[in-house]
Amino acid sequence: MVDSDDSGPSDNFSMDPQLERQVETIRNLVDSYMAIVNKCIRDLMPKTIMHLMISNVKEFINAELLAQLYSTEDQSVLMDESAEQAQRRDEVLRTHHALKEALAIIGDISTTTISTPLPPPVDNSWQGGRSRRPPPSPTRPTVIRPGDSSLFD
């Protein structure tokens, strides 16, 4: 039997409180699940894009570049050092040898330098055991406290 009431969807919300709590709990769980899915997709999307890009580059290298390299007549020419690289290598080797020599000279200087021992500490026993204040600082004013006679000694 079909109800012929003209009741709208607003009457559907007159459920009992326990059912409303269950619906709210399910809604919260679905929202939490969707937040987790959204976070996972945001995390995986850049990784997936990089994986696809690297896979495509790898396929290109295997298909095109290796074929071009192997199609050259003399592959030993590919491994020859250019004149600019040879010049750069020679400069780096000269710098390396100069630095090694400078390090050896510095090492010789530090081992052959004679250091004089420190003088013995000053004997303050003649002052009579009373400690004196250091001289006043010219930039900081001296504060005189009542009963402090050590300033006038």
UniProtKB/TrEMBL annotation:
InterPro entries found in the cross-reference section: Dynamin, GED, GED_dom
In the record, biological process GO terms are: receptor internalization; synaptic vesicle budding from presynaptic endocytic zone membrane
What is an example of a GO molecular function annotated in this UniProt entry?
Answer: GTP binding
Domain GED: from-to ranges: 23-114
One GO cellular component term noted in the UniProt record for this chain: microtubule
Location of the region described as Disordered in the Swiss-Prot/TrEMBL record = 114-153
Task: Specify the superkingdom.
Answer: Eukaryota
Gene3D superfamilies in the cross-refs: Dynamin, middle domain
Q: Which Pfam families match?
A: GED
Protein name stated in the entry: Dynamin-3
